[in-house]
What we know:
By secondary structure, this protein is α/β, with parallel strands linked by helices. It has a single domain (8-290), classed as ANL, N-terminal domain (Rossmann fold). Helix content is 43%, strand content 18%. The chain has helices at residues 8-18, 39-55, 72-83, 97-107, 117-126, 155-158, 166-179, 205-214, 236-249, 262-269, 278-290, and strands spanning 24-30, 33-38, 63-67, 87-91, 111-114, 135-138, 151-153, 185-190, 200-204, 226-229, 252-255. The strands form three sheets. A five-stranded parallel β-sheet has the order 4-3-5-6-7, sandwiched between helices. Strands 2-1-11-10 form a four-stranded mixed β-sheet, with helices on both faces. The chain is globular.
Amino acid sequence: MNIHKKTLVQLLIDSIKKYDVMEDILFTKKNDVYEGINRFEIINYALCIKKYLEGLGLRKNSNLAIISENRVEWVITDLACMLSQNKTIPVYPSLSSESIKYILNDCKAEIIFVSTGLQLDKILSIRKDCPDLKYIISFNSVERANEKEHIVSYKNIYCEKKSLSRSKLLETLAVISDNVQEDDLLTIIYTSGTTGVPKGVMLSHKNIYSNLETFPDVLHIDEKEVFLSYLPYSHIFERTAGYYLPFFAGSKVYYAQSIDTIALQMTEVKPTIIITVPRLLDKIYNKLMKT
């Protein structure tokens, strides 16, 4: 029996029922053109990754790390982990190899998803010191990908499964939802470690659902909103307010290429909402005052 539970899987089901799943919602700037992807493709890809992870023999509630800038694959991977009942461990791409090693060993991460060759090199430099780490999956294509070393290119996983129809998609998600509980851990987010070693903060489905549930009391979000995302998904503020909120509310999200391109991209995207912090506002203010 599928009771309306306070889980993000339930929010995913609700969003599919309410919004046009074929409308592009995530946009990435490539060669001066914004390429979009719709919710239907995203979820089908996530189910494909879920199937691949299960094929690796992972037990449920395993810890899977993500070290990447904000991008479509981050979202797909996060959803895949959620649907396969595994926990995501987001890692800041700016961290050193030693800091990453501490986090991976502390949470006993079995798989890490990396974005670029730079991040892959960091992981390869510490891999021998991370006994629990079994697989490295790279978002970017890698020449070094090989089954023997358990280094996998993300794109090679995509083509293993045909897309499900909308009705079949809802049916599949309903079965998954029955097995996901409100108090199940969704993610473990490590603090910056400014007062000692980083500490893993455990957040459940209900923790984040409760934040999303109360958001309309502060700000009404719907499918007409356009977000420009630049803060890292590794931080719970952007992940909740700049990813989950628009994704489940049918809004569009455009990815900033960097903090330095935000001004230009604001004129291109014309966002209605930017999730930000005082540091960026200071930077904009100081630049305006100088000019």
